Amino acid sequence: MGIPLELEEWVGGHWHRFITRRSDSGFPQAEVTLESMARSLAMLFHAFGGESGMALEGAPARQLLLRRGWLQRIAGTCGQVTVAWRSQDCLRLPERLAVYPEAGLNRELYRWLALLAAGADGIAHWGRDNQRWTSRLLVEYPALRERYRQLAEAHIALRPEPDSLPRAEAALEDCIRQALLEPGSVEHFPRADRAPWPVPLWLYPEGRLQEPQSTHLVEEEPGSGVRHADQTRGSSKRAQRVADSQGKDGLLLFRLENLFSWSEYLDLDRCGDDEEDQDAARVAEDLDQLALSRQRSHKGGGLRLDLDLPAAELDDIPLGPGCRLPEWDYRQQRLLDDHVSLQQMLPRDALPSALPERLRPFALRLRRQFEQLRDGRQRRRQRPQGEELDLDAWLDFQVERKHGTCAERGFFVERLPVRRDLACLLLADLSMSTDAALDNERRVIDAIIDSLLLFGEALDALGDPFALYGFSSLRRQQVRMQVLKPFTEPYGDAVRGRVLALRPGYYTRMGAAIRQATRLLGACPQKRRLLLLVSDGKPNDLDRYEGRYGVEDTRQAVLEARRQNLLPFCITIDREAGQYLPYMFGANGYAVVARPEHLAARLLHLYRQLRR
């Protein structure tokens, strides 16, 4: 009599949890996550000399040839470990640390790794370079010596005893212990057949993730960039090329029970085979390594097209031949001339429209408030003529006359109109990320459209010259800039219709949009020129304009705008903007809106402040 399947699964599940807990060398009860310390670690890294454009991301697990105990071999654990390392673009730390039995020590380990990485340069020898970095850090900052000693001694107490290891591995373990306690004292590390137990206080060489983009594909398809379902996760996966298997090689096993009878066989059109697997991203998160094949399967059942851009009769209306713009390559530390193609466009099917009914009460209130600012006048005292008597000047005159010294002055206050010397260009991000839902009825793009409309109503009442533009991109060959209201056009129903016709799409090549806005705003005669950018996230695109490359190019575009005496300012709804916007726009060059529905009110409040 066989064991029931349910009982077998129940026993197997309990056994797996039991053996995994027994073989775990960490301390889950004291676990600390990278997400909880990301902001403080980034500030610490930059404050101690780390490159400002470096991103902080989670590190994937790495395969190391370790000597595992019999419980770990039975459970199949500890085959992969997560270690800290840094590359040219980012610093990668473990997503969670449970190395020590105390959460405070795990937090200190995160801080130590950030400090060590801030002063780390190219790694040539794992042991000697980490000793050199540690020694230099302890000499420059003696206050860290006690903290480091606690971390090192607590870790050594958890490492395997040299007496329990073979001779070569024991010699290597003795050297690592001495290098931890006395950094810089070990010059030679003996060889061993197996890797030593991981040293969490040290940085490891850069992980070779073998990204699929860097391999030679049979045919590179446009739009085949990897898209992450959850962009808040910073970890990467290790990819490995595998040989194609078409099932025609090897021994063919034929089983008679696999034959269908006539009544059992049904020729069904399985349309679902051609649809995207909605669980693919979730399954990929659970895999430690991704295997990629050069084989391209051609499925039947229909023709699927992935078009980069809509047909010309459905796309927005281009204005003119477009222009070429430079782009900053931080790797080469130079501007790439004529690297980006930008096309100004008008939204198609944009009909003149009145302001939506739901916005009219708020817009009327804004118009009244901004009209009061428009009527403001400058008061000039001690004038020979004016609209009212200057009592302060008259009292001063009487006091001076009694003391025998009397200066000539006027006794009137003259009110002069305030000179309009401010021009503003509002640039809105229209990428596909703005299609995200705020609630059951509204999206982020709806909040941006409302902000553009209310901003236009307020500045039209104020009388300041202003322009409205939107932007998106699809690689460097297709940067799209939506012309909603140029400086030369009055605000009216035609502008409102273009704003209401906006649709989200594509990506965010922010540097090119800022450079084009700088050109337009730089042609204004006003002395004070304000460039307002409304966005919901970091700069990104399908090509290499991702991560540090996009951040560095945007920062360079902002610096170019400031050199032309423009004031760039970014307003964002991204809660994680504090990690990258200070580097791009400066500590006082951005503002974060907690709730997107408050974007319009915050935008106008900031304009009042910046206008002063």
From TrEMBL:
Residues 421-610 form the VWFA domain. Residues 212-243 are annotated as: Disordered. SUPFAM superfamilies: vWA-like. It comes from the Bacteria. This is Nitric oxide reductase activation protein NorD. It comes from Pseudomonas schmalbachii. The lineage of its organism: Bacteria, Pseudomonadati, Pseudomonadota, Gammaproteobacteria, Pseudomonadales.
